[in-house]
Amino acid sequence: MQFATWEPLYQSILKDFGFSPGRDVEAANLLAELLRDREPLLRTAEAIVAGHRAVVCGNAPSLEAELGELQERDAVFLAADGATSVLLRHGIVPAIVVTDLDGPFPAVLKANQEGSIVVVHAHGDNLDALNRYVPLLVRIIGTVQCRPMPGLYNFGGFTDGDRCVFLAKELGAASITLVGFDFEDESVTPRKKRKLEWAKRLIDLIYI
Hints:
By secondary structure, this protein is of the alpha/beta class. Helices cover 46% and strands 14% of the residues. The chain has nine helices and six strands, in the order αααβαβαβαβαβαβα. A six-stranded parallel beta sheet has the order 5-4-3-2-1-6, with helices on both faces.
């Protein structure tokens, strides 16, 4: 997704949640500096996903059961943050993990050590986590929700789950299957519910 297309959605999200665009830029600058000497891995990610069936895994409570029923074991798996723990328990190392580093980092680190590319997202609320965790990761792509500077990307998306979907589409997946997504989860906080509403709205824009 071009930033010109994403920007009106981003501005609406900022307004809805009261986020600071300046803090997003600060986080983006920090991530760019942390990744300054890293090998670019976007082409590697494209080679893994392009033309293949992609299974995008959210971290809803239903994920465990849905994985047990899933037939697409030869597909490419993308995990949204906390879904990584569930996938690893099922013996699946996701090709790509998408995270803003607010979930179970030990699982993300283990997947990274076993070959997963970790797509780390910078935003105004995770500067401390970026400083703490990014140096521990070895295969990494940096993303932002503001205008991307050199070395970083903005594929669109707001939550880890919908960013996974935007990423799979951007990388050229032949098809996208969602598992572990529950946009109607009544057990979440009002703030999380609003995030789920945004996730559904954004996924509906591009889901194939």
